[in-house]
Amino acid sequence: MKKLVPLFCLACVLVASCHNSVKQIEPSEAFRNALDEVMLRQPKANKVKPDELERRREPIVLKLSFDDCIELAMTHNRAILFEQLNAEVAAADVIAAKSNLDFFVGANVGYSRSQQAIQSRFPGDSRDEDITATTTLGINASLPFATGTTLDVTGSFVRNDSNNPFQTFEFYPSTTLKVTQHLLNGFGFVPNLGNSWIAENNRTIADWQIEVTRNEQALAVAMAYWNLVEAEGELDVLYRQEDLARDALELAKSRLEAEIGTRLDVLAQEANLKSQQVSIIQAEAQVELRTDELLRAIHPDLIHGYALFDNYTIVIDATTEADTSRVGADEPNLLEEVKAALRRRPEIRQAAKQIENAGLSIEMSEYGLLPTLDLETDFTVKGFGVEFDDSLNSWDDFENLEYGFALKFGVPLQNSAGRASLSRSEINKRSAILSARETETNVILEVANAVRQIKSARRAVNASEESRRLQVETYEAEQERQKAGLATSYEVKQALNDLTQAELDLVKSKIGLERARLQLQKATGELGR
To answer: E strands of 145-193, at which residues?
Structure first.
């Protein structure tokens, strides 16, 4: 047991050394780097250093535009980073798929000694034992080709030391050239390069998957950004409605004191105020949730601050406003947008590559059904001599040659593996074709839905603008009535509250149009570029 302790300690040291070779980044370091990077985009008044967060009580305010969020996400969004790693793995798989054509070089050193009693003697033989010692030095190389050809070269040098008086040489070099050619199964480029072609296609698919993910994550960032803008707008309206509820409560109390109101009116206004405050609490929590969703999408390392600092909070000041001018006045043409999507979307190109890979697998499997027929040829040159120079001269003059050829034929009688592989490849191709058709269908429906959303959102914007115009007229009319003594200040504030709600509805409609525009850009493959 005591002998096992040093071995166990050595194993622990080796394991620890293996782990230490991988660079690990602590969450605190990643968070500090993320905060420093984001602060580069902030005005001087908003800049905060990580060292200040231990004693800071105020929230960190980040002024971020829509473009800022997209740029940060394209660099730090983890879904994109994962796909980039997958692309690197696919590139490594290409190298592995070409390993069957790797050039191989080797060397060998050997020594053997045989010693046995003399079984029969000739006159004058005084030996008691027959002793032979052989020392061998050699090199070998193997070079496969994509045509199914393998070239093997072997060179060796042998020295024999023996007490046999009949041994006429002590040294001999030998060089052998062997060529093997597959004539049926394994012949040609498809069985030898098929796996590398499939791996290269998979690498292309992985590169296109980065584009797919960038497109999807750009839309996710856009949705998170406008969700936050919408939540902040709703919270602002609730704050104004709370002020109006307080005024209504004060008015009810005044009417009760003047004996022109009832206690029931006061209780109703108190309940209304509490209801508004509950809505505000829920809206504030919704703003925090939308903020975290946006942070996770653009730079998830910023989330680590919640685990590192007690009073850590972030407030995002979204500086980009919804603007209907970003959507053209002309209605989008569904047919043209669908054609553009089928031309640009990497999912379509991925589906085509999958079909191509399935076809290659079928071709490779068909070769597996063929019998084997291999042609082997070899050519050997040897040199013999008592002295080293004599053996080299003999080898150089091609005095001792060996050459020949052989045909090897084999037929798999059942070949269950080959037939199963071909069936599986044919099924995979049919599946790839169906998947491509399904992908095209999904893209067409996605574009059609986005076009419909744009049309619907534009009508909603027009209706919201008309509603806001009418509320402006109502508010101005209430102000005139107040000047004439026909309306109270509460009625004016109520009209202002209705106007604020109409303005929020207009902002929501514009955000809806922005979302529809972004959905169309994502559907046509433009958003993540």
So the answer is: 149-162, 171-182
